[in-house]
Amino acid sequence: MQMMRMKYWLVILVVMALCGCADDGDVVRLCANPDLDCNDSNACTLDRCDPVRGCLNEPVSCNDGDVCTVDSCDSAIGCVTAPVSCNDRDACTADSCDPSMGCLNTEISASCDDSDLCTTDSCDPSLGCVNATMSCDDGNECTAESCDSMTGCSSVPVAMGTPCDRGLGACLNGVCEAVACSSDANCNDSDACTMDRCDLSNNMCVNTDITASCDDGNACTDDSCAAETGCVNTDNSANCDDGEECTAESCDPSTGCSSEPVLDGTVCDGGAGVCSGGSCLSTSEVEYMQDFEALDQMDVNALGDDGWIVFGSVFDPAGNFLFGYGTFAAPNDGSAFSAIVRDQGGPDQGSQQVSIYSDYNNTDHALGNTIEASVFRERTITAADVGRTILFSFDAKAGNINNPGDALCPCSSTAFAFIKTIDPSSNFDQTNNVREITTALPDSWGRFEIRLPIDAGLVGQLLQVGFATTATLFEPSANFYDNVEIGSAATAQ
Length: 493
Hints:
The structure is a single chain. The protein is mainly beta. It has a domain of about 210 residues: Galactose-binding domain-like (Jelly Rolls), CATH 2.60.120. Helix content is about 5%, strand content about 45%. Strands 23, 26, 27, 29, 32 and 34 form a six-stranded antiparallel beta sheet that branches. The chain has a six-stranded antiparallel beta sheet with strand order 25-24-28-33-30-31. A hairpin with a 2-residue loop joins strand 21 and strand 22. The longest helix has 18 residues. It is flat and about 145 Å long. The N terminus is likely disordered.
């Protein structure tokens, strides 16, 4: 039907054209044809119908009035505006586009200034900013040049006597002066810290610094050189004073300063304290001091009556705990735990000492089990101890522990001094165990100290301070101890 209608209208138009019919004022309305479609499917035209001329497809204008875009039209999507490229391929310009003026290429060379007076700043069209290191060479071989980024180039004179001018001169105060010599006497620079000589190969003076040779190899002197007098070796042993009145300072030429604790018990702090392990303790802060001189060696209860107790722990060969026994008063005999002995001391130990060893009365030795024998003093920690550090100091030397000459050795016995805390409210768990290992002491006496700070969490727990050994199969385990001191000091903050 639609096709027939179109044919109908075409016939009318052809007839009107052939007959030359005049316009009688009743124009045929072509746009009234309901089947007429003017859409040409081109997004770049504006489609409409003129009653006389019929369909009109007029091109659209895509000009957006912005010189920074390239305007075009795509038949499928319509107007397309793409930014213009203002890149002038010059790294020394900042490229942009102004909608009214178009491309702008602004010079940026001024921004290349890096505020460093040691560089020459410029801009390369290919590379951009270039900050080249400036040469500070002033052309004077008798000066050393340097550059500071804040202040720029500077120069200082090189060492006096530095050869210059191809060896025909020497630098003096930054100036190359002609110098000639025929003997060392001509080269005296009046500086006792240089060795002056004339190099006869070029008749030039050589003034060699000799400050390094002022080292006299004595660690107790400060070595320097004075131009007027030469080497100066000043005694510095006064600097060894550590400010602690319970230490004696000395200076050894080979090793320098050292300090040793003064004899424990030495009065300090104007009589208000005594020295212990190199520290001055208020007399009220020394809980216990014992040199064993006043104890009766023949009294089996001497150590127990002095407050020492013992405890034994037994472990199988794999190290598993089997059982413990004690506590009971420390014995003073020759077979278990401890005994007062004579004539093992030096000048500071007197005639009596204490020996600590294994419990050889325990038959678990024969089973290959290990016995840990502890000999110690015990008390309860109180609030007054909080903020203080327990100090345990003593003299010690080797006894027969692991004696290679003993028929039972080689042996595996161990020994140590300890400060422990034990919590009775928690199944007597051990909460601290600070040790000084004394297994391999020399045959000569030495002084030792261990410390344990006390905090509020330890109040009510047991404090144990003493000595212990571990041994099996009756192996030798004894050490000697003397001048035992237990005290406290304010904990360092």
